[in-house]
Input
Amino acid sequence: MYGKYVFEKSNEKRMDNLLEIKNVVKTYGDFTALNNVSLTIPKGSVFGLLGPNGAGKTSLIRIINQITMQDAGDVYFDGKLLAPNDVEHIGYMPEERGLYKSMKVGEQALYLAQLKGLSKSEAKKRLKYWFDKFDISAWWDKKIEELSKGMAQKVQFIVTVMHKPKLLIFDEPFSGFDPINAQLIAKEILQLRDEGATIIFSTHRMESVEEMCDYIALIYQSNKILEGKLDDIKRAFRTNTFQVGVATSNPKEVEARLRQLYTVSPADFRIINEGLKLNITLKEGENPNDLLSFLTSQGQVQHFVELVPDANEIFMQAVNKNS
Amino acid sequence: MSKLKLIIHREFIAKVRNKSFLIMTFLSPVLIVVMGALVVFLMKKNDEKVKEIVYVDASGLFTKENFKDSKTVKYQDYTALGLTETKKKVENGDFYGVLYIPKKDSLELLAKSIEFYSSDSPGMSLMGGLETRIETHLRNLKLTHFEIDLMQIKASEIASNIKMFNFSGEESSKLINGLKIAVGAIAGYLLMMFVMIYGTSVMRSVIEEKTSRIIEIIVSSVKPFQLMLGKIIGNASAGLLQFFIWGILLFVISIIASAVFGIDMVEMQASKIPQDQLNAAKEAVNPDKLQLILQEISRLPILKLFVLFIFYFLGGFFLYSSLFAAVGAAVDNETDTQQFMLPIMAPLVLGLYVGFATVMNDPHGPIATIFSILPFTSPIVMLMRVPFGVSWFELAISMALLIVTFVFMVWLAAKIYRVGILMYGKKPTYKDLYKWIKYKG
Output
């Protein structure tokens, strides 16, 4: 059954979670988009909602944004059942970016800010701050259709965050951003997290957000198959495999000795000097230090790294185990 | 400001600032008046050209008295020259045409044998005028033949204008009936135009939000229903403003135009009526006719008309534009809208046809009554019937049905809208729309 890889966060109380999703079900006609999905998103964390296209991520995000309603299950926001006014505390950047093409940048941003519950004067003040920060004040009276794509992306980011939401949801956050803007946006997002915001990244390109995430959840075919602290998950999915590189005069003999002691497979990576390159998997309870001291006795150790699975590999393993 | 107000405000501003709106608002009344004035001007110039007609009266029954010159036609007696020679003269272009009255045994035979020759075919009004002259004279001749005193006949002529009453005490007459038809037709036609122009405008606005992909950001802040309602109200306000400006501009420009082109509105009307009839009319008509018309207008239930006009105008617009919004939400681009447009347009056009075909002749007949109660045609047909006085009972049924249908359709449209705005790609079928309506939440 699904859900056996959920890592308990027993020490965390409900008030420490900004968002709790309990047994949410969503169907469109005969198609089940979300099958009994539960998630817990702690305050101030960066949460990666990962899964391939069509897994149900966007359906879940639309429920959090109250664009659609779940068929069953509950969503708690900041300890209370999600209510209509909560949209003022959520900032959402959808996968498909867009603004009114023929509307002026400033007016448009003001309009969207007011829809999020800001007063006109407050919205103006905050927009000025962000426009100055991104150095785009000169674009206030331009229409979106006159802007370059990069500029429009900055405006898009500003209208997502300007009402200082408690929860920021980015669907495919860096798709469509050029590397410079992507870096700028990533920096700003982490800054917002440090100021207390909770971030959800939803993406099918897991490697793009892995470094920034504190927690992840994997969604696959409408089901959540994995959830927890990224470090915990990685620890659980570690295979005790080390990638080693040794410069030695008799590589064949060393390899043969290693094969007697451990599970060994050839490895391919880049180091400056040529030498023996292997992946060595230790058994439960074996100390990597023993391996290291053996290697140092055989030659010059140039490379010694534990192979930690990345999100992609974890995902593949989780999917295989579940299907 | 509430979110709905914000949306209405944005939709209104976006619409009003649009260049095509400005052009439509300020140029079209100018164009209408200029075109109209041009037509009238040309017609007038045309009428000013005096036609010379000669007549050859072989019967000897007609005199110069029967062919008095009018403003546009001058007559000359060429009986002496004979038909063949006169025809040659006409062919040479000396005259417009020749009227030949042969000699016959009986007046009946004569009446059927009169001929007219001209290079180009004469207009209806010219021939009508000639026929009237001949008929009048021949009739008088016959009356004399029967030894009836012409003076007695003249003295016995009496004009009657039957005054019509209904049981709620409203008085009507033929004159006011014409007025009622005009008021009803204009109101119905305006409503249809309004629904077509601003309904499609609502639809375009929905499609724009879909194609620019801003829709998901908007609906993460407001309910789709609010957005749809805001769009409809915003566009309706822009449309009402446009109609208001048109009204003022048309009034101002027609005053200016009539001054520039020197067209006297009364004369313009008069020029269409053959001179003889006009003279006769002038004699018959009460000198304070204008006062009579004003009196009749003031007798129309102006306040009731105005209130019902606003009610059906808004009711009809909301009903139809919610459907337009649903269509906009269902498709990705305007070219895909056609298959859904037909069922929306059909009742609208049907309403107008039924209105023009039945209300004019029989405002309280069964067809007019039924169509003024059916919700999709009621705004147009009822608006046309209202000036004729519709019982409160019928009005109540019609209005109640319109409100119920309107609420139901807005609810239904909102369901399609809510799902459709987030759907991209495949062009939906009616089956898809039905499925969307059944989705929960």
Summary: Chain B is about 70% helix and 5% strand. The CA atoms of residues 159 and 284 of chain B lie 8 Å apart.
